[in-house]
Amino acid sequence: MSIDLTTEYLGLTLPSPIMASSSPVTGDLDRLVAAVEAGAGAVVLPSIFEEEVEAEEMAHHAGLEFGSGVFGEAADGYLPEPVGYEPSIDRQLSHLAAAVDAVDVPVIGSLNGVSDGGWIRYATKLVDAGAAAIELNLYRMPADAHETGAAVEEGYLSLVEAVRAAVDVPLAVKIGPWFSSLPSMARRFSEAGADGLVLFNRFYQPDLDLLTLGVAPNLVLSDPSEARQVMRWIAVLHPLFKGSLAATSGVHGWEDATKLLLAGADVMMMASALLRRGPGHVKHVADGMVAWLEERGYDSVDQARGSVSHANAADPSGYERANYIRTLHSWSS
Q1: Which residues pair with 18 in a beta bridge?
Q2: What is the structure's pLDDT at 216?
Q3: Domains of the chain: which residue ranges?
Q4: pTM of the entire predicted model
Q5: Residue 244 belongs to what H/E stretch?
Q6: Under a CB-based contact definition with an 8 Å cutoff, are residues 235 and 263 in contact?
């Protein structure tokens, strides 16, 4: 018996629901190709961060124009235009174009902007470079006590609408779980033009350096326990959300991928697992999921998808408040 792994994501037909998500793996062409050869149905490239691109451009021009208009001996600045200099945005777009040429699965561009103009500008560049779809990587840290949650949500929706009006490729929105009503927000994202949601963005938390008293970055790779929150909300949203649902964060083994499929995910994305075990790990995850489905008589991932979602579970209260109570009562010393 053979399992049909074909799935639909953002209106794109993928040969497998296992994807390589945005990470250094997809930022390297050789490892990206290896992930696809191992069975990845699509790849998401590392995000373009608007503030990094803008800061690099400003520093470059400031250096070239140093002294311009001030010193007579260097009316146009002291430094000549460097030969062979390639801005980071050009490198990222070149990598996208090379990936599109190298693999026969969809290559999805990722974008993290800070201004409406930046979101639109770089989304357009991604499409022009050949992106099959765009993942809008939403991350904003509200730090203004006078800005309401409703205002933050409206800002998210307005930028999705702006990008949707500017490009004609599918849009996925990668979000965090912290909304007062995630089902309502999912509906509003769809109405704003999102073709799918990616659950959930891992917002890396800062650390304090006790020697320098500085705020330091702290990269911690995911672990399988993080997939539980994703699974719960995939299961809840599966019967409610009209677009695609992608599961990310905590997808490490075939068990994680299979559970998320049963909950209702259209695709399961991996980053940390591929960084730890290499791009060939995609095959191990797909093979394990296929073996489990075959053992239970499924014909395809479409047949299995959502069979234990909130709407189809024998006890849907397990996804709700009852799970909290049962979990507390289940502990024994």
Answers
A1: 268
A2: 85
A3: 7-330
A4: 0.86
A5: strand 244-247
A6: yes
